[in-house]
Amino acid sequence: MKTLRTIIIDDERLAREELKLLLKDYHEIDIIDEAKNGEEAIEKIKVLKPDLIFLDISMPEMNGFEMLKQLEEIPKVIFVTAFDEYAIKAFEVNALDYVMKPVDPARLDESIQKLNLKEEDFTSQFEGAINRKDRTLTLTDSVFIKDGEKCWFIELNKVRMLESDGNYVKVYFDNFRPLVLRSLNSFEERLDPEHFFRANRKFIINLKWISHIENWFNGGLQVELREGEKIEISRRQAIRFKEIMSL
Fold it and tell me: Could you tell me which of 136, 168, 208, 243 has the fewest CB atoms within 10 Å of its CB?
């Protein structure tokens, strides 16, 4: 991968310094300058023509979105911000990613890996993220999840299962289990049935995560996921599961 000439734009000096420190081991990122506000950033982008910018959204006088509107040529953008309410708008302007402050090194690494996408893959990824309310979501789709002050933007292939918990649904991925104020039925309607299966009244499982299956009581099945969770597939759903998964 070629070296990406990069500018960091943030009104907080400590935030810029922290990000520079986190990026120092990424040889593909060449930090050529930094800016403390939108006006300064516009001038530097026009002159230096960077390949990539790390951009804060909430800045005095001119926020990140307003700054982008004034550019004739927009480089690749990774938003780095303390505010989650702009996430959907960020992807509508084809941002490469949206990273929350304080920046988690593993989350930043995910963003850097996205820089390896081919241009056509980058375009199609974000075209699909816009106006998708009526279509089925596949394993390659990414979703925005917020639970209290924490939020994530993850690909659905990382979600191994969903569990109904009262009026909420618990979403299992990595070591996280955020709660989303929605019904399990609403998730079932949106998720691709080729990969997400309704095991019983409480659980939807990602079929790609199944590591072991065994017969269970009353004609049901029990599946074990790669992270060790064991989920019972009800007798009724076991019949459907066998129909779908058998040769």
Answer: 243
Consecutive H or E run containing 206:
strand 203-206
Residue carrying structure tokens 């402050």: 101
Of the candidates 165, 242, 236, 156, the one whose C-alpha atom is nearest the C-alpha of residue 200 is 236
Task: Report which residue type is found at 119.
Answer: E
pLDDT digits (tens, 9 = 90+) for 70-103: 988 889 999 998 876 666 566 656 678 888 888 9
Among 2.60.40.10, 2.40.50.1020, 3.90.190.20, 1.20.120.530, what is the CATH number of 158-245?
A: 2.40.50.1020
* The token pair that represents 224 in the structure block: 């074990």
For 4-127, CATH gives: 3.40.50.2300
Question: What is the C-alpha separation between 177 and 180, in angstroms, rounded?
Answer: 10
> Could you report the per-residue pLDDT of 8-26, keeping only the tens digit for each?
999 999 999 999 999 999 9
Tally helices (H) and strands (E) across the chain: 8, 15
- What pTM was computed for the model? 0.53
What is the C-alpha separation between 180 and 6, in angstroms, rounded?
Answer: 36
Q: Are 53 and 76 in contact (CB under 8 A)?
A: yes
Kind plus residue range of the DSSP H or E element containing 97:
strand 97-100
Nearest one of 246, 238, 168 to 205, comparing CA atoms: 238
139: its two tokens: 């394993």
